[in-house]
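Chain and backbone:
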Amino acid sequence: MTQAPFPDRSFAAFLFDMDGTILNSIAAAERVWAAWARSHGLDVAAFPPTIHGVRAVETVRRQGLAGVDPETEGAAINRAELEDVEGVEAIAGAGAFLASLPAERWAVVTSASRALAMRRLQAAGLPSPPLLITAEDVAHGKPAPDCFRLAAQRLGVRAEDCLVFEDAPAGIAAAEAAGASVVVITATHTHPLATRHPVLTGYEGLAVRVGADGLALSMHAATASPLGLHPLI
């Protein structure tokens, strides 16, 4: 039996990033962003990998394009993403794992807009979260810790007592800054991620024990998912 991460600890709540963590929207997102990059003369081959984990407006702002209003462009990209959910699908085991959690003990915390988050969750066949923190809810997106702190506050717990499930460096940095523990989901990764946090390839085999002291992770012996710990480099 493969040991689950944090075998000797319980958490007040679980906080999940969305894209790349509970669902795979890479193909759809990169189609939309590649078209935008092409229209602005950016390197289409190099640009799409830079979009993940942060709000659209901040991705646009980073480009420093003359005459481009990040808010307007971000809204246009969001509309395009709402129209393109082809290929969006749940990460294996995510639906069952989320359904096993007490409603008052988990949230989805995403850099997507609320409308886009609901559209992608529906497209992936995942349950609507009891609490959804989106791009509109915070002044500063990931890697700032605001989103995870807000989720914890609304659940009535401390961020330091939460476990964050993330896949992207910006989200991992946000969780660290919030003081939360982190487990990294690598289901959509094509290259190894150097991290000091526990790593899971997905949710198949992952289970939760609900007790008076909170939520704890465990693994089903028959279907345990590989777990690794990768040093920072």
